[in-house]
User: Fold this.
Amino acid sequence: MRLRDVVAGANASMYYRTDFRRIKAVYYPQTERDAVEAIAKAREMGYDVTPKGAGSGLSGACTGGNRDRVIITTLRMNRVLSISPDHTYADVQPGATPDEINAVLAPSTMRFHVTPSSRDVATVGGMLSTDSGGNDAWLHGTMRDNTLRAKILTYDGKQIEVGREGVRCEDTSLEDDLNRKALTLNDIADAHGLLGFVTELRLALKPIGDETVMAGLVECTDISELGSVVQDIISAKIPVTYGETVIYAHPDIRGSLNPPLLVLEFPEAHLRDLQSITRLRMLTREELAELKDIRLKLAKRTPKRGLQISLFEDYGFYGHNLSRLQERVERIDSYLREHSFEPLAKYGHAPTKWYMGDNTQANGIIMHSNEIKQPRQSSSDVFETAMGLVRLCEELGVTPKPEHKWIYSDYAKLARIRELREVIGGGFNSFILDPDCGAVLSTMIQ
Amino acid sequence: MLTTTKRAQKKRSEMTFEKCVRCGSCMKICPIFDAMGEEQYSPRGKLYLLQVMDKVESDPELAKEFRRLLFQCAMCGRCTDVCSSDVDLLRIWHEQRARAIKDAPQEFAYLGALEKSLENVKNIYGLSPEDRAVYWLDELEQEIPNLRKRVFPEAKTADVVVFLGCLMSFRASQVDVLRALFKSLEILKVDYLVLGAEEFCCGHPLDLMGDEAGAKKLRTHNKRVIKQTGAKQLITCCPGCLSQLQNNYNFTGIEVLHHTQFFDRLLQSIEPYKQTEEFTYHDPCELHRICNVKTEPRSLLKKMGVQFRELELSCCGGGGLLRMTDPNLSDKIQQLRAAREKLSSTTVITACPACREQLLGNNLKTKDIIELLVTCLSEAKG
Ligand SMILES: Cc1cc2nc3c(=O)[nH]c(=O)nc-3n(C[C@H](O)[C@H](O)[C@H](O)COP(=O)(O)OP(=O)(O)OC[C@H]3O[C@@H](n4cnc5c(N)ncnc54)[C@H](O)[C@@H]3O)c2cc1C
Ligand code: SF4
Ligand code: SF4
Assistant:
């Protein structure tokens, strides 16, 4: 046992106190060949494989639970392999981050348009596996919308290529079987690594818009007004290029913010449409940059006393829940307070879009939430509260329940993954499918 | 009464590493992670290990490995800069280093020699304290005739005290910078003196080892001598010394400045520099991040009309005692940068003797800003 094994448990979720003695090996492949070899070693030893990107995911899936396992991290597989001659797509290794990809693209006018707040570290392999989205998802979609194909290694070392329409594989019988099951990128998106190890992605590139954009701040009197504004923008199909909301910020971290508020960047041609929906205070370029920075950092801000914790990511409000946003958020907050968690921040992408476990699309607000945890709160208090939130969301119709970062309770997705693993095989992140997954996770909370 | 566990828990919760939300933003910007590529070398990795230390420290081998990891850090402060979660990483590294040396002094015998040298002869090289004003004085005396009279205690008082620091006092590779500094001060008729043998190490290396008591002894002496000179300003070319003098000396009535600050204030306009080579500018970490001196070096270059390419705000690999604790890693950091930022075809302008050593050691061309300035001032003087 070396520290390189112990440290493989480092991740942004509240599930980080892993039983590292059960991490049997850690690999940092640099090429697909290295990854094939690492998986072969795991197979020879009979261990499950846990793919890990940057560990910025909030579900705890990249820890591998507490099975005997091998962790394969993609931190050293971060090269942009090639850019198509017409600059419409790039082939990249799974450990590349959006920032790294866009730095390579900087001399051109093309960009990769998935911008989660964690874009400085989140890897595209991890992002596809959680169907990540960012402040421009409303316009450009989530990771699945921006991925043209993914190369994936199965536990028995086969390479499959999954596209939007289906699968290609040298093993034609596997190819036929998977195509019969209609495996597409929609299944890999959000699969939390359960369907194999992503070794390469072909990502769609789009031009930086050349229209003049403007920025405005919507300051709302209450949270429901904010929900209604977002609803109206969605109905009017206004192509907002950047949309972020701050619903609540604790005094410790609020600074000059005055939530609830919405920061929007949009084409000049749509100014009137927006003004017909809401009052906009126009923002200068500097003011916008400052607000963007504040918002970006909000996810990481910590309270003066107690520790920041993210009980789960995220709350998806869409449809009628948008106009009842105030009541919904109040229910969530009073539940949190009943369990002695003080809300720290609520913020997120809006308007935005995402996909449910059955691949239907939802439009609305994805609200990230952080709470303050006091030292007296035990790991089981924390876990029970998180589970209670899952149930509450189900009751309130806040979906996806609770969205794409929490595969453990998305039953449609889980059923589909089980079905596909019968053909493709298992061997990756199997703990998620174990009946005691929750119990295991609860032991990993501080 | 608090039980031992509760007390331990309370103490732990007060430590700022507990605030780390493990977001990973400090990972890719860390030069050590960049060079090594594995997570245990990254700031997040190390903080994570602290967060699960109760599980780690029961294994003596892991605890030993962790102590070594703490010294595989250039103390460049980039992680502290990027963190939005109020984690004071640099402070944590200082505290943990001190703890590591206290817990297992036998593992740090190689640092013991440095500590001894600082205790006995007050410099990092183990040379006689008298030699502080010998090498460079021998070299420069002919060119700057009054220089000997500028050395304390022969010079008793002055408006400005120059604090050279160990590197600049003893290393031949620094003489060109000293020449430029003294000549500039002479041309501008500044009333200055140099502390000479009465200057002790500023305490920075001991601070980096977490030896607060040792650093304090050196500070007390330096403070007393500096006070005697009656100076109103203290200038140094070394950002490491500057960080100590500014942050740990608590001077009253004496302004502590980096040489770039001093000259930038003094000179409204400067004769243009006759540039014949391609320049890049490297921000010394301790100057830029720890002492927050960002604009003055650029302002001076602008006043001289120097064209240069900005480099990434990354470390040269020479800080945090890394040259002693892991010289190969220190070189690797510089080599990676040199290749990535195409440094071999340029002259790297900087303003730090330690960065200079690191660049020269890797066969790169470098100049201190003061070397450019002195040519402009000499030109103007005719
Ligand atoms: C401060 C902060 C802000 C965030 N903001 C956003 C946001 O705006 N939008 C958003 O969508 N998310 C956000 N997230 C969540 C997180 O960044 C995303 O879920 C991201 O996609 C995870 O990427 P990763 O590389 O860190 O993956 P990891 O956390 O390492 O892994 C996530 C999952 O993917 C699997 N996986 C990783 N790599 C591979 C691979 N090569 N092959 C197969 N499976 C793999 C893992 O096993 C795991 O199940 C945020 C997180 C933080 C800490
Ligand atoms: S940036 Fe700060 S919060 Fe994020 S991992 Fe580093 S130290 Fe922790
Ligand atoms: S101080 Fe610099 S070298 Fe040390 S951990 Fe932070 S970024 Fe890395």
